[in-house]
Amino acid sequence: MARARSRLSNGVLLLDCQGLSRFIENDPRVVSLVRAAQAKDTLVAVSNLTLIEAWHSKVQMARFRWHVARLEVLPVTEAIVAATALDYAGPRIVVTSDTDGMNKLCGDRVRAVGV
User: Fold this and answer.
1) How would residue 9 be classed by pLDDT, with cut points 50, 70 and 90?
2) Fewer CB within 10 Å, N or C, the chain?
């Protein structure tokens, strides 16, 4: 079961797709990093997009669930949408309900259209 987030949390250990995959495979280095972080009350987390990226037909569902249950799953943020838009060349338009937030993240490099 995922640990409750402490107000005294000592930062975050964020696993990307490969980090999560190696955690699920019980890679000693990654397991050691996760255990050390948890022992220090560090938040150990993955993005919910990472779950989608890491899942494939060769992963055993029970094993996947068991490992993910020990992590905090973080929601997609506006910053991910902004980073995705900024990764493309040429004109970029993001349709959003938060044009102010998108403008703060992207400046004039992305046109934010409000809905």
Assistant:
1) low
2) N
